[in-house]
Each structure stands twice: as structure tokens, then as C-alpha cells.
Amino acid sequence: MDEVQHKFVDVGGLKLHVAEIGTGPNVVLFLHGFPEIWYSWRHQMIALANAGFQAIAPDHRGYGLSNPPTQPDKASFAEILTDLLSLLDALQIAKVFLVAKDFGVWPAYLLAVLHPERVLGMVTIGVPLKPKRSAFHQYLPEGFYMSRWREPGRAEADFGRLDVKTVVRNIYILFSRSEIPMAAENQEIMDLVDLSTPLPPWFTEEDLATYGALYEKSGFQTTLQVPYRSSGDDPNITDPKVKVPVLLIMGGKNYILRFQGIEDYINNGEMNELVPDLEIKFLPEGTHFVQEQSPDEVNQLILTFLAKNV
Fold first, then answer.
1. Are 158 and 190 contacting, i.e. CB atoms less than 8 angstroms apart?
2. Contact 220, 88 (CB under 8 A)
3. Which of 7, 29, 285, 292 is paired with 55 by a 20 to 30 Å CA distance?
4. Mean pLDDT of 30-40
């Protein structure tokens, strides 16, 4: 990772940590999800830089090395969108391709529909674009991980029983499975992973140490607020259609496919109403972390998409 450069960019008085590599004329902005940081894009950033692109991956506010907001319990997706626009302005970047995963797909969508002049195209990984954030907790039992983590103090108490590195380890193991993380009434989410369970083979102890060190700095306060507790900050979007080309990459074993209606939404053409210029690629063995699990395949899909749309 030595070739990746790091800097801090001031966005409205908050220091945003940014990793970057490459000097090409076309810029790709990577937006991570939870519990990820810029590092989750390490394989893609190097591949794109080698292909002549400039790759930029910020840590969202309160994640990784980026400063937390002054009021973490009020952090919102609207702030992330503002951060992204300020970042592009500070770096004097007029237009970008977006590559987004997990909750990063929502600010990517907002950027594309509210500021289409800044976006050339978009790749979403693991989560399909939707015009509103889905409230899946309304349709699943109380033990659903999102329901538990939405409850103030519940996840903090659960996570607080373990060291930070073990929390990240457990979430990576849980989210790599094809089943939705669901606790029984007398369980917490962290109890779903036995301490003897090995890491996924594509996620090393060195990777875990990198995540653990950064979460030691940031903690989980902002990261639980966004995405899990920041409901109600959806903007009014008059025209929800995405007018740029979009590639959706889904792992066939991604537990998200078990959420109510998601697989039908992807496969029955409904998504094309929102995204007319849509391409969908399934990687049958792929999990929620398919970009880390199968980097060569994902890199090739992204590069093929970019080559068609530059």
C-alpha cells in the first residue's frame, strides 16, 4: 500500500482523510460502507491507477482517520453529500465516476440525481439503487441487526464487551455469510460469532489489524449514527431517475439478497425504471464484500465499464 498517498482535505472546517493514487485525466471516487474505510478499496485503487485513472477514496466523516462531526449523534447522509461536493471543489475536480458500496450507494445516488453535472457514471456494489432508503427493519424480527443497532446504546453495550479489533472481525465474518444476521431474544449481535470462527480466507490478520487500528481512533459513535440511526434526512427529489450509466455488481451469496423484495427488484426490470442505462453483473460465489473477496473479477468489471463510458 506504499504507493497510495494520503492527505487531509478541509471540508467546511472538518478534516477529511483522503487516500489517492494515479494521475490520469479521469477520476474515480470510491465511497465505502460499514464497517469499511478507504482501505476496503485497496485492490481497486491500484488496478485503476495502473490502467491510467486517478483513484480517490475518502474516509467518511467519523470513519477511519477523518475527523468526527461536532455532534456525532446528529450526523447525517446530507452531511456526507456536502462533504463530497466540498472535496471535489477543494481538489478542483469537475466530474467523477463513482464506485460505491453498501451505504455509500445512497450518497452516490444523491450526488448523481441532485448534481448530475458532477457525475459521469456509477458502479454500485452489493446494494441496488433505490429512490428512497429502505426500512428493512420494519419487516424483520426484533433481532435483526439493523434494528438492534438503531437502538441508542444497544450496540455500544454489545461492542463494549470486546476489543475493537474483535468487533470488526465479528462483523466481517457475519456480513460474509449468506444469511441475514439475526439474534435471538436473549442474544446480542456479537454473540452470533464464536471466537474460534476463522476470518474469511481473503481477509488477512494484517487487514484486520489495519481496520482495528483505525477504529481504535474513530470508535463507533458516528459509524452507528450513519448509516443505522440517521433516518428522516432524505431530501425531496423531484426527478429520481439516474441519467448516467450504472453498473451493479452483486455477489450471489450476499445476504442483502435475502431482504424482502430485493432480488425481485433487481431481476424483474423494476430497477430499470429508476436507472434506464443499467448493466447488472452477478458473481455467483460473491459475498457482501465481493470487491475484497474477488478483486480481479471486480476490477475487470469496473475497468470494462469505465472504458465504455470515458
1. yes
2. no
3. 285
4. 97
Where do we find the cell 448516467? 244
How many residues can be counted in the chain? 310
Instruction: Give the separation between CA 102 and CA 125, rounded to whole angstroms.
Output: 7
* Closest by Cα among 144, 177, 128 to 285: 177
User: What is residue 1's predicted lDDT score, i.e. its pLDDT?
Assistant: 65
Place of cell 481504535: 216
Cα 108 to the chain's mean position, in Å?
10
Please say if 228 is a catalytic residue.
yes
288 catalytic residue (yes or no): yes
Are residues 74 and 32 in contact, defined by beta-carbon separation less than 8 angstroms?
Answer: no
Give 25's DSSP letter: S
Integer Cα distance of 31 and 28 in angstroms: 10
Q: Which of 59, 60, 63, 102 is catalytic?
A: 102
Task: For 43-76, give the DSSP string.
Answer: HHHHHHHHTT-EEEEEPPTTSTTSPPPSSGGG--
What is the C-alpha separation between 279 and 125, in angstroms, rounded?
A: 12
Point out the catalytic residue in the list 172, 211, 228, 255.
Answer: 228
pLDDT in tens, 119-140: 999 999 999 998 887 666 566 7
Report the half-sphere exposure of 164 (CA within 13 A, side-chain side).
15
